[in-house]
Design brief:
heterodimer, A: about 475 residues, mainly alpha, two-stranded antiparallel sheet, 18 helices, 9 strands, globular, B: about 1000 residues, mainly beta, 5-stranded mixed β-sheet, 14 helices
């Protein structure tokens, strides 16, 4: 009897204990120290999405947030400028391909400090994919809000693809990468296929932005002043699309895109008018500093200087030399580059917190000119008008050469060389027009690489995935 | 309440009367039980008559008395540490029979009860695993260990215990049977004390941030096992591998250590007082350069301004008599050690208690360092009814450690040894304390080491509370079958308050820091709670073959852990102000942790007449640390032991036990907290704050690590307990090791945590215990342990990679590659650009030799030698002392600078050693003498002297081959960077039992 009583009492006690405390339940724990990405992906809140959008604006700058960023890398390869960093001779040896070069750049799978052209933009793409994939689970958004987020994210994602596309060129790149499936990246697309794919992303984004209402449900920094509405962002989208259209040699497509962009074709434009466009901001403090700001007569240990040819070939009276460059009291002297002697340095940014426009009216005018030149015929006059807006703004006389395609291409490329100095275009432009061998390398004795070898990590992954 | 008490008493009385009525004819047996080897009475021997369930135990004088039914009976005399004796006798009604019994010590402890399953025990003679048990005697009788892990060194085969620092308060890396994880999971065993899952974390202090060392692994804090009082411990059981620990499931990959504290015993109340006093001193001082003018020329360059300056300083110091061996000055102090322990234990059949208090204080060999521990314990056991028993074990611990600044530093001068390496002996003239108590700045390094010792603070205060509550109830009993319930719950609350402080007037702070004065306060709380319920069913089934004893267990267990850490740093301090409210720069950080585990287990044990014992069981575990927190992972176990001597065909007087055994088990290794999270990071752009995607991720389907072990061996006991041999061989494979997989760079992911490797440990353990001499005037018992382990990565899915141990590949690295041992040291040989295998962190073998002597009736002596052979370590202290020209062997006898081997070989050293871990000599005052002096008041007095770490024989050129600058490490890495030197302790002790 006692046994049974004991049994009943104790078991009853245990049952009460178990059921009252839910002891068998093990609720999953989310990260108490940070915001867990999987939480945001599966069940985003309004605040989460805004944070991600702000984060996207921030990472959108990363490809150019170091002095050795994309503009320096492509600028140095194309010899429009020299990135001088005395802490490592590889910056000159490898970037300039000065012999002896153990492995040529095109076959170099571990190219020196080239993350700005590959891993960094791909990380920004990853972030944009996180935002895009989170949107799929954000049921509380209205259609307009959903379009706003999607259009914004896809536009910047497409912008970031430029860097790896230009870095790898004919190697081709992966475009269909996602956030949630890092073990299944999309296959490699050829340069042309990738280009088409990216332009598709931009066009879809444009459609999204058209249906995004009047305002963005998230804040943007001052860098997007004038463009921080769906309407403004659509103009940015079309500007980027115009740039890509040039790469695809879709001249009419470029003109069509420019029509919906912020292209300003009025005459008598000043320098400020030419610099209109969305910009990367650099707030300093907890934020980043502008990596291309240099004090007067900056120390030669870390500096960006124009190539001597750039200074020498300028037209007399071209204000771009004065405005984009700062004169030095003494020329730069670098042990690694004994033949380099130039008494100028990068002077585009006035302070360490100056913003950095990443696509601007001046370039749009040049795209307009190029597209018209390539279409030829009556369009050539429109091209000349556009070029003259730029020449005028920089204190030069109007174009006086022949109004025919070959001469105008030379003029347009020359204007691009000076207007878009140090903004990552020269290498791409010379390569598009098959003029890489015309680049002057006498100041260093190296060679202009045509593209960079496929990163070792990609090769390893292909091997690993195919085991 | 009163009514029930009376009723119960009446019922018991009636039952007693009833029983005595039934017993009709009776006789009384009484006598004295003595130890056959020494003749001394043995207390606590169980005298048991199976048929009537009558039993008693011998008291302090060894006497017992028991009433038995008239006729022929067999009495069983059993006690742990002695061979069980079954004695036949007979008596007639009313007769008084005297039966004196001599108990033979059993060196193999065959009757010892070993915990298996989660709530059951099994006799060691039936055990199918190699489980090591350390008794209280072995822990604290022959030495005064400051911490439990120190007390285990050299006593357990298959285990590598390295003291990573010699600082007071311990700091040990315990690795059972080789490598259990490559770093993703816990490399330390699970510690369970009285059923409580205790916290053995290292609670970091931020010392590495203030000293510039970089990374909290270099904080040099001790693991929290140091809070426990070794004198409270009754026994420690070590389940070395998955084959024994499988029932503990997913926290047991690195083994399980089960600790039981002392419980009260029924009988007269016993009071025990122990007072130890002694001192510690450095075990091994290295010596330094004796500078002469010629040597200064050789080091600084003859004719240079520096040489002239140094010669000037040398001569001035000589004139002032201030050339002092700085190593002696700093490390050569004797710290006072005192340990006071008081315990009271007693009780009766219903209630038993054990209450103890301890005060342990140890000053370090460096001034202003030390370790204090105050402990209080109350263990109470109460039988509510003969079937229901509750036990409460409570303990409050309060420790304070001051461990000083040692190890690595960068720029701040924040390490005594590092700074010392650059100071020649004649620098004492410049750096010694001034008459007004201040210190001068040092021209040799960023800080004057004497000032660093005097004014900087590294203190950690711990308040800790352990509570365990257990309920044992027999629910149902009939015809030899019994259903019982065992429920236990426990909690371990640790609160750590630490402070690291560099005053603003210190050299680096004043001259170079942006904000002079640096203080870091850390407050950390760890709360572990666990709950376990087990139903146990014992029954006996008789068959044609014989009797089968069956034990079935079924239960569930739950574990919760919450940790919160707040760290606040203030820089730019006001004089004597450590409150960060007065600091000009304040940075703060927090970290939280929350874990819940739940498991269900079942086990079936079959014992065929003690001839064959088989066990099979399984555990299903889930945890929030797993990627899929709702998924149960299954861990099976099975084992078989055959006692050949219990069969009829093998009966021998020579061999008392011949038991081949084999066991298999699987356990899990959970990823560390945070391993399954991939989290957003904060970012600023303009005035906006946003969040950025993680650049790392977790592979879908990530599983916990899993260890599978097959262990087999044989236990042989000879010569009636005078000799026993235990031989074990094991193969422990760890699968699904968690490593970082690098996906394609275009995914934007640096690393995906995934299951990527397999590892195998193969080892042998041999334990030989013998009593070579046993007679009245002299006995000698000895234990020889020998063990070895080798590891190899057997499968690696991701490409092979190297991990440097510290800063540069020249300082050594480990390589994870198929076919390579994970503990291999990879480095560079002079002239060879390839990184090759140059050594191994694991020793080729370890051996220990422990001996106990009793002589001249009342004297007892013992010593324990521990030999580890074949391991290598990296000694970077040489790099520092060479840079300062102060290494003992820097100059040869001709004052020429000795050249080192070059590349990594300069730092690679043989870390083999032979250490005299413990030695003791004690004298027990004979009971007759004691009786004459004190009457019956005092039962026993023992005087003794004990020593710990007394001698070390090694080729290693540093303070101790066991140390590691980065604390506990899954691979057992040892990098020596000017550590706190290991100490040797000698204590005089008096133990009084009342």
């Amino acid at each position: 009897m006692k046994n049974l009583t004991n049994l009943i009492i104790v078991l009853a006690g245990l049952m009460i204990l178990v059921t009252s405390c839910d002891l068998t339940d093990v609720d999953p724990v989310s990260d108490p120290n940070n915001l867990d990405a999987s939480v945001v992906l599966e069940n985003p809140s309004d605040g989460d999405l805004q944070n991600l959008a702000i984060g996207l604006e921030a990472v959108n700058r990363n490809y150019n947030s170091a002095t050795s960023g994309w503009w320096s890398l492509s600028g140095t390869i194309s010899r429009e400028l020299y990135y001088i960093n005395t802490s490592d001779p590889n910056f000159s040896q490898t970037w300039l391909q000065i012999p002896p070069v153990p492995v040529p750049a095109e076959d170099d799978n571990t190219f020196f400090v080239d993350a700005s052209g590959y891993e960094t933009p791909y990380f920004a793409i990853r972030h944009s994919n996180l935002l895009l994939e989170s949107l799929e689970n954000a049921d509380f958004l209205s259609d307009a809000e959903l379009n706003a987020y999607t259009g914004f994210a896809s536009t910047l994602k497409a912008y970031q693809f430029q860097m790896p596309l230009m870095h790898q060129y004919q190697n081709g790149i992966r475009v269909n990468v996602t956030f949630s499936e890092p073990l299944e990246p999309g296959g490699f697309l050829s340069y042309d296929d990738a280009l088409a794919e990216i332009r598709g992303i931009l066009n879809t984004a444009a459609t999204n932005l058209e249906g995004a209402g009047d305002s963005f449900p998230f804040p943007l920094s001052d860098g997007f002043a004038g463009f921080n509405t769906p309407e403004g962002m659509l103009q940015v989208n079309r500007a980027i699309a115009a740039r890509y259209a040039l790469y695809a040699e879709d001249w009419q497509g470029a003109l069509d895109a420019l029509e919906d962009s912020f292209l300003n074709l009025s005459t008598g434009q000043t320098e400020d008018d030419l610099y209109v466009g969305p910009a990367h901001t650099f707030g300093g403090g907890n934020d980043l500093f502008n990596p291309y700001f240099f004090v007067d007569d900056a120390n030669e240990n870390l500096l960006i200087v124009p190539s001597p040819a750039f200074v020498a070939d300028a037209e007399a009276g071209d204000m771009r030399i004065e405005r984009k460059l700062d004169e030095r009291t003494t020329p730069v002297e670098v042990n690694d580059l004994p033949d380099l002697s130039v008494a100028f340095q990068d002077g585009r940014f006035a302070t360490a917190t100056s913003s950095m426009p990443f696509i601007r009216n001046e370039e749009l005018l040049l795209i307009y000119a190029e597209a018209n030149i390539q279409l030829g015929g009556a369009n050539l006059d429109d091209a000349v008008d556009a070029i003259n807006i730029i020449r005028n703004a920089w204190g030069l006389d109007p174009y006086a050469g022949a109004v025919e395609q070959v001469a105008l291409i030379d003029e347009m490329l020359n204007q691009r060389r000076y207007s878009l100095w140090g903004e990552g275009h020269r290498w791409v432009d010379m390569r598009r027009y098959d003029r890489l061998d015309e680049i002057d390398t006498s100041a260093d004795g190296g060679r202009v690489a045509t593209q960079i070898g496929k990163p070792q990590g990609e090769i390893d992954w292909e091997e690993f995935a195919n085991q | 309440m009163n009514y029930r008490y009376i009723l119960r008493t009446v019922l018991l009385f009636a039952a007693a009367l009833f029983l005595t009525q039934v017993a009709q004819a009776q006789f009384t047996v009484s006598g004295t039980i003595t130890d056959a080897s020494t003749g001394e009475p043995v207390v606590g021997v169980t005298v048991f008559h199976a048929e009537t369930n009558a039993g008693t135990s011998s008291d302090i004088d060894g006497t017992y008395e028991l009433d038995l039914p008239a006729g022929d009976i067999t009495l069983r005399f059993s006690s742990i540490g002695f061979n069980t004796r079954n004695i036949d006798l007979s008596g007639s009604n009313g007769q008084s029979v005297t039966l004196d019994v001599e108990m033979q010590p059993d060196v193999a402890n065959l009757d010892e009860l070993v915990v298996t399953g989660l709530a059951s025990t099994i006799k060691r003679s039936n055990l199918a695993n190699s489980v090591s048990t350390i008794s209280a005697e072995q822990l604290t009788a022959n030495s005064d260990p400051q911490t439990l892990d120190r007390a285990l060194q050299g006593k357990i085969p298959g285990v590598q215990i390295n003291a990573y620092s010699g600082a007071p308060g311990g700091g040990f890396n315990v690795q059972l049977r080789g490598v259990s994880t490559l770093g993703a999971g816990s490399s330390q065993p699970l510690y369970i004390i009285d059923g409580v899952y205790v916290n053995n974390n290292v609670l970091t202090t931020g010392r590495s941030t203030v000293s510039g060392a970089g990374g909290t692994a270099q904080d040099g804090a001790a693991n929290r096992l140091a809070d426990l009082n070794p004198d409270d411990i009754a026994s420690v059981e070590i389940l070395k591998g998955p084959s024994a620990a499988a029932i503990y499931g997913q926290r047991a990959n690195a083994g399980v250590i089960i600790i039981s504290t002392k419980q009260g015993r029924a009988g007269a109340t016993q009071v025990s007082i122990k007072q130890d006093v002694g001192f510690n001193s450095p075990l091994n001082l290295l010596g330094r350069t004796d500078w002469t003018e010629d040597r200064i020329d050789a080091f600084y360059g003859e004719g240079s301004a520096a040489a002239a300056r140094e010669k000037g300083r040398l001569n001035t110091a000589r004139e002032n008599g201030n050339v002092v061996d700085l190593e002696e000055e700093i490390y050569g102090n004797n710290g006072v050690v005192r340990n006071t322990q008081i315990s009271v234990s007693g009780g009766n059949a219903q209630t038993r208690f054990f209450v103890s208090g301890g005060l342990n204080r140890e000053d370090g060999i460096i001034s202003n360092t030390g370790f204090d521990r105050r402990s209080l314990r109350g263990n109470i056991e109460h039988s509510i009814t003969p079937q229901v028993r509750v036990t409460s074990n409570s303990s409050y611990l309060n420790t304070a450690s001051d461990r000083g600044f040692t190890g690595n530093q960068n720029n701040t001068g924040g390490s005594i040894g590092y700074s010392l390496a650059f100071h020649p002996n004649y620098a004492y003239d410049l750096i010694k304390q001034n008459a007004d108590g201040t210190f001068n700045d040092s021209p040799y390094f960023s800080e004057n080491p004497l000032r660093l010792i005097d004014v900087a603070e590294n203190s950690q205060k711990i308040n800790r509370f352990l509570q365990s509550l257990a309920l044992d109830a027999t629910l149902f009993e009939k015809d030899g079958s019994m259903l019982s319930l065992n429920a236990r719950g426990g909690l371990d609350y640790t609160n750590s308050d630490s402070r690291i402080y560099f005053p603003e007037f210190m050299q680096f702070q004043r001259t170079a820091a942006n904000f002079p004065g640096d203080v870091i306060h850390s407050a950390e709380e760890v709360l572990n709670t666990n709950l376990q319920t087990v139903l146990i069913f014992n029954t006996s089934v008789g068959g044609d073959f014989g009797d089968f004893d069956l034990t079935t267990q079924l239960g569930a267990t739950r574990f919760d852990q919450q940790i919160s850490l707040d760290r606040i740093r203030g820089q730019g301090l006001l004089p004597a102000q450590t409150n960060v409210g007065n600091a000009s720069q304040v940075t703060a950080s927090q970290n939280f942790l929350d874990v819940t585990d739940f498991g269900i287990f079942a086990q079936q044990e079959i014992n065929f007449e003690d001839k064959v014992t088989a066990t099979v069981g399984g555990r299903w575990d889930k945890s929030t640390l797993n990627l899929d927190s709702g998924e149960y992972y299954f861990y099976p176990k099975a084992s078989l032991a055959v006692n050949l001597t219990n069969f009829d065909f093998l009966e021998s007087d020579l061999i008392s036990q011949l038991k081949p055994r084999i066991a298999y088990g699987e356990t899990g290794g959970l990823p560390s907290f945070g391993g399954i999270f991939s989290s957003l990071t904060g970012v600023n752009v303009g005035s906006l704050g946003g969040a950025v995607a993680p650049n790392s991720g977790v592979a879908p389907g990530l599983k916990p690590e899993r260890a599978k072990e097959l262990e087999y061996g044989i236990d042989i006991s000879l010569l009636d307990g005078r000799a026993s041999l235990e031989f074990t061989r094991y193969n422990k494979t760890i699968e699904d090791l968690i490593l970082g997989l690098q996906p394609a760079p275009s995914t934007g992911v640096n690393q995906l945590t995934s299951n990527a490797a397999e590892l195998e440990n193969i080892g042998t353990e041999i334990a030989l215990n013998i009593i070579p001499v046993q007679n009245e005037s002299f006995t000698w018992s000895s234990g020889i342990l020998w063990w070895t382990n080798s590891s190899e990565v057997t499968n690696l899915v991701i490409p092979p990679f190297t991990n440097t141990f510290f800063a540069s590949p020249t300082f050594g690295a480990s390589r994870i590659e198929e076919g390579v041992s994970p503990t291999a040291i990879y480095g560079f040989e002079p002239g060879d650009p390839a990184q090759v295998n140059i050594g191994d962190l694991q020793p080729d073998f370890q051996m220990s030799f422990s001996n106990d002597f009793t002589f001249l009736k009342n004297f007892r002596a013992s010593f324990l030698l521990h030999w580890s052979e074949g391991a290598e370590g990296i000694n970077l202290s040489t790099l520092l002392t060479d840079s300062g020209g102060n290494s003992d062997d820097y100059f040869n006898s001709n004052d020429e600078i000795v050249s080192r081997e070059g590349a990594t070989l300069t730092f690679l050293e043989d870390a083999s050693y032979l250490k005299l871990r413990e030695a003791s000599l004690s004298y027990t005052i004979p009971t007759r003498v004691l009786g004459r002096i004190t009457g019956d008041a005092v039962r026993g007095v023992r005087l003794g002297v004990t020593g710990t770490n007394l001698l070390m024989f090694t080729d290693y050129s540093g303070y101790d081959p066991e140390v590691n600058a980065t604390g506990r490490n899954a691979l057992g890495t040892r990098v020596d960077i000017t550590p706190f030197p290991t100490t040797s302790k000698v204590l005089f002790s008096v133990k009084i039992d009342i």
